[in-house]
Amino acid sequence: MALLFFGTDPNSGGGNCPAVWVDTDTAEGPELVLQGKFADAATRATCRQDSPPAEDEGIVRIPLSMVEQIRRACDAAEAAGTQL
């Protein structure tokens, strides 16, 4: 596994959750890996109406303050995908 770390929420205060990485070593191509707070029951129920999560999936919340790190991770994942 080749995880490239792109950062944590600048507002976290502890340098931890949420966070974003790119895994460049998957059979399907690069993937984002996100760490975040689990969504509350009401949010999960509402999300299930549009897209029920599979047994191995979850719903997490990522604050807008993470947009820059996620954008950089997306750019890196796209760039790595063109090199596969």
Task: Please explain how this structure is put together.
The protein has 84 residues and is of the alpha+beta class. Helix content is 31%, strand content 24%. It has one domain. A three-stranded antiparallel beta sheet has the order 1-2-3, covered by helices on one side. Strands 4-5 form a two-stranded antiparallel sheet. The longest helix has 16 residues, at 67-82. The protein is globular, with a radius of gyration of 14 Å. The two termini are 15 Å apart. The mean pLDDT is 90.
Topology:
Elements: E1 3-8, E2 19-23, E3 31-35, E4 37-38, H1 41-50, E5 60-61, H2 67-82
Antiparallel strand pairs: 1-2, 2-3, 4-5
Short description:
The protein is an alpha+beta fold and about 80 residues long. It has two helices and five strands, in the order ββββαβα.
**Unreliable sequence segments:** none
Order of helices and strands: EEEEHEH
Distance between the termini: 15 Å
Estimate the helix proportion, in percent. Answer: 25-40%
Major sheet characteristics? 3 strands, antiparallel
Total number of β-strand segments? Answer: 5
Mean pLDDT: 90
Radius of gyration (Å): 14 Å
- The helix-and-strand class reads alpha+beta
Query: What is the approximate shape?
Result: globular
